[in-house]
Design brief:
Oligomer: single chain
Membrane topology: Single-pass membrane protein
Subcellular location: Cytoplasm; Endoplasmic reticulum membrane
Protein name: SELS protein
Number of strands: 0
Mean pLDDT: 77
Structural class: mainly alpha
Keywords: Coiled coil, Cytoplasm, Endoplasmic reticulum, Membrane, Selenocysteine, Transmembrane, Transmembrane helix
Strand content: under 5%
Helix content: 55-70%
Pfam families: Selenoprotein_S
Length: 188
């Protein structure tokens, strides 16, 4: 009985063939149904593992910068001193620019004040103050008459003749509008 697959032989060989066939059938049906999804998931996991291993290999041990500060504190002190000196130079340049700007503004204000005073004085004397707004035109041109009619340029022609009247229809040139003929249209 022992050699015929009895209790001493155990369930292994007899269950092995049927179990193997069942396992092949189950695995085959799962792969045929979800094979592409399993393949894509495996590739994604592989890529993720590769990226994580690269990032861990590239990272130095300990905190970045802690080793440098612990090893060379004098380099850090020199760098901070250079940074402070650069900030001080930039602040001095900014202060100098601000002073130049303030001086320029003071000069402009003084010039405006002088112009206002000159305008007020000319108004008090009864003169025209428009000429005094610009300091370049303080002198009155000789030969300028007091006539208020501006002179037109001699080479320009007027746009329309003197006898043009749009309401009369005369003097308008070749373009004129006339109403159409009333009555039935002449057909056929």
């Amino acid at each position: 009985e022992l050699g015929n697959g009895g209790p001493a032989a155990g369930p292994g060989p007899a269950l092995g063939r049927g179990g193997l066939e069942a396992l092949q059938h189950t695995v085959g049906s799962v792969l045929s149904s979800y094979g592409w999804y399993i393949l894509l998931a495996a590739v994604a996991v592989y890529v993720l593992v590769q990226k994580v291993s690269r990032s861990l290999a590239a990272r130095p041990s300990g905190r970045p910068g802690a080793a440098e500060a612990a090893e060379e504190p004098d380099v850090v002190v020199r760098r901070q001193e250079a940074l402070a000196a650069a900030r001080l130079r930039m602040q001095e340049e900014l202060n100098a620019q601000a002073e130049r700007y303030k001086e320029k503004q003071r000069q402009l204000e003084e010039e405006k004040r002088r112009q206002k005073i000159a305008m007020w004085e000319s108004m008090q004397e009864g003169k025209s103050y428009k000429g005094n707004l610009k300091l370049n035109q303080q002198e009155v041109e000789p030969g300028a008459s007091a006539s208020a009619v501006p002179k037109s340029k001699p080479n320009k022609k007027p746009l329309r003749g003197g006898g043009y009247n749009p309401l009369s229809g005369e003097g308008g040139g070749t373009c004129s509008w006339r109403p159409g003929r009333r009555g039935p249209s002449a057909g056929g």
